[in-house]
Amino acid sequence: MTVMTSIVFGLTAIVLLIAAFSVVTARDLIxxxxxxxxxxxxxxxxxxxxEAEFIAAVQILxxxxxxxxxxxxxxxxxxxxxxxxxxxxxxxxxxxAVVALTLFGLMAWAILTSELPAGPATLGEDVTREVGxxxxxxWLLPMELLSVLLLAVMIGAIALAxxxxx
Amino acid sequence: xxxxxxxxxxxxxxxxxxxxxGLLTRRNTIAILLSVELMANAVNVNLVAFSRFLGDLxxxxxxxxxxxxxxxxxxxxxxxxxxxxxxxxxxxxxRADQLRG
Lengths: 166, 101
Fold this sequence. Notes:
The complex is a heterodimer. By secondary structure, chain A is mainly alpha-helical. Chain A has 2 domains: about 1-90, NADH-ubiquinone/plastoquinone oxidoreductase chain 6, subunit NuoJ (Four Helix Bundle (Hemerythrin (Met), subunit A), Up-down Bundle); about 125-165. Chain A has helices at about 1-25, 30-50, 55-80, 90-115, 125-135, 140-160. Chain B has one domain: Helix Hairpins, CATH 1.10.287.3510. The N and C termini of chain B lie far apart (about 60 Å). Chain B contains 3 helices and no strands. At the A-B interface, helix 1, helix 2, helix 3, helix 4 and helix 5 of A face helix 1, helix 2 and helix 3 of B.
């Protein structure tokens, strides 16, 4: 069972990294968005591996259902399909690669030299129930603030994107 | 054996740096938003992994907050992009250099 977990983790991580790399290198904007969908779904698989089933469900509902649809609409509304290519200069590519690799080296050094918990801890019987309980007890105020924020975002987005002459 | 915490963290770090690379090289505003999505996703993976290994569900609660915030950010970002396109017919980030609408 645990060997299976490792295998699933490894395969999903590979898919995720390939998809992420394609998101930042693909030339066609629509393809970028679709690769992002692959990356987000494989992240949901990783969440299931980490016993966060509810978050995996939210990830698929919100991201893959909501964000990807929205992004596709955004691409189609703004880019003329012929000009939806993304051009990158080689100097910028080099600069980005240097910064990204340096940052990764720094993070990898920090991860590998610090003391981490050896094995997974037990999360309890019913993770989703416990998360829901935490939401309505310890984290009640942040959750209410979040709902206010979502309302503000909804009104703001409508106000921004509405045509001025109805 | 289960994948160790270092494997999770290294994977998330690679994901984050891929996002940084995209952020630095892309010109198109929507492509930049996609890179930001990748980076936020890497952070979520870290939160869930720590929650798993420390046995503390606050990590999962924070992940849910982070997911909602990212969705909000994308909605406003796309609204601005649509607005930018409507007023300038161009969504290259480095050509949006006028404050006047």
